[in-house]
Amino acid sequence: MSRHFALADMPETIPVFPLPGALLLPRARLPLNIFEPRYLAMLDDTMKTPHRLIGMVQPQAMPEGRAASDAAARLHRIGCAGRLTGFQETEDGRYMITLSGVSRFRIKDVHEGFTPYLRADVDWSSFERDLGRRELDHNFDRHAFLGVLRRYFETAQLASDWDSLKEAEEELLVNSLSMLCPFDPEEKQALLEAPTLETRRETLVTLMEFALRGGSDEGSLQ
Fold first, then answer.
1. CATH class given for the domain over 9-131
2. Strand pairing of 78-89 and 95-111?
3. Are strands 53-57 and 13-18 parallel, antiparallel or unpaired?
4. Which of 12, 31, 140, 166 is the most buried (most CB within 10 A)?
């Protein structure tokens, strides 16, 4: 059963799950296979809370040979929290879960040592729009968008249900593709931080066209 959150409902501190390349966006769903003991403990603790929120966040890309001095420096400042809405325990002790995206957040401080997993004090105020209705992209050209997407999928040898893509709501379409396409973590972070659905769609198209040019900056965007 889905739950509607208001800004006043959002907790000040949440567990965070740093996972490179795993992008969660508001009103989208992210399936995860959990097996590390510290994250199994995180899920056990999360299920005891009234909000059941977990923050997905991208680790920072550190220069080779250089380690971050603390947990906060190892994480991007913006992540997205999802509510634990699906849970299944396997015979070998893994958890198969689904997170339903609720809202992005900005990390204020990170706590380590109190629990085997990281916890963060977070600020939701910049992303109150995430808690509202689905976003619209008034300049969305589905035909042009699907043309770029088809070329990208063919080049990347990805399969898709094109009939479903033609009918999908624009927010679901753009956000699902942002999550599923095999972009690197920094590119995923750019998609997460896009302030509007239109900006995210433009960023997504830019990344696909960049990949179609073989990662070269040469040439102009269509």
1. mainly beta
2. antiparallel
3. parallel
4. 140
